[in-house]
Amino acid sequence: MTNIAITHSEAGVIQATVVRREQISPHFVRVTLGGDDLKRFESQGFDQWFRLALPVDDATRFDNLPSKIDTKGYLKFLMLPKTTRPVIRNYTVRQYRAESGELDIDFVVHGTEGVAGPWSLTAEPGDHVAFIDQGCGFRPVPADYTLLVADETGLPAVAGVLRDLPRDASGLAIIEIPDAADEQVTDAPDGFTVQWIVREHGARPGAAALEATKALTLPAGTPYIFTVGESQLVTSVRRWALSERGIPKTNVTFCGYWKLGHSR
After folding, report:
1. I need a labelling partner for 73 at 20 to 30 A (CA). Which of 33, 131, 163, 217 fits?
2. pLDDT interval class at 264 (50, 70, 90)
3. If residue 231 lies in a helix (H) or strand (E), which one and from where to where?
4. Can you tell me the distance from the alpha carbon of 233 to that of 246, in angstroms, rounded to the nearest whole number?
5. Cβ atoms of 175 and 195 closer than 8 Å
6. DSSP result, 99-162
7. pLDDT in tens, 23-50
8. What is the per-residue pLDDT for 114?
């Protein structure tokens, strides 16, 4: 569930190769992509997302993908032979370095759970990927301060927002992570507080972040709220903001990146 508009990049399909892989914390693997085709990448900063096409095996092809995933493009994708068709998942740009032509993606990994996480654990330099469409969900409206709420899947997006916000911006970021060692350094404005919440073992993802959000004593004025992560977390934050705090719908951006019990 989301109110983020899907956009399509004029760049079409961008192909890339793995440059390196690094386990940066217990539940995060950073894969760095490179290649000449990345010169066509249109960096937008903040929580910039794209559709990442990943190989299933050595027979996977990327040269016949649709240039965008709209209704027509998705039908074309489904008509590709299953034996050569990649899997596609939405991901966030963690960092793009135009000077070196490199792009980092942080993958949340929980052993063999999901599709993209296990791929990131075995990705090797030279492995091919592609991505289609690009956009940003973070579209703030005039507000007195900003509230960011996410679980670990939303950490790359929130970190990107904190990095690219105006330096005089103020607000609070609540980020739930499965392990204290998963905490990352963020380039947040001085007026921002970043609250890390470590989830208890076996607890529902997002529940602790939601509890912390509901317990907030909000400053005077009207905030802009950006919440991403597990579906129940973001819909609950939105419901709390609208129903309990009377915040206008236009001031809340939300996107369920995944749903508990479903493969990522």
Report:
1. 33
2. low
3. helix 231-239
4. 18
5. yes
6. TTTEEEEEEE--TT-SSHHHHHHH--TT-EEEEEEEE------S-SEEEEEE-GGGHHHHHHHH
7. 999 999 999 999 999 999 999 999 999 9
8. 81
CB half-sphere exposure, 64, CA atoms < 13 A: 13
- Is the distance from CB of 213 to CB of 237 less than 8 angstroms? yes
The H or E element that residue 160 is part of is: helix 155-164
Contact at 8 Å (CB) between 171 and 223? yes
Model pLDDT for residues 121-157, shown as the tens digit of each residue: 999 999 999 999 889 999 999 999 999 999 999 999 9
Q: What is the distance between the alpha carbons of residues 67 and 65, in angstroms, rounded to a whole number? A: 6
Domain topology for 145-258:
Rossmann fold (3.40.50)
| CATH 2.40.30.10 is held by the domain 14-135 | yes
CB 107 within 8 A of CB 120: yes
Rounded to whole angstroms, the Cα distance separating 180 from 162 reads 20
The full set of domain ranges for the chain reads 14-135, 145-258
List the alpha helices (DSSP H) in 3-115.
71-78
pLDDT band for position 263 (cuts 50, 70, 90): low
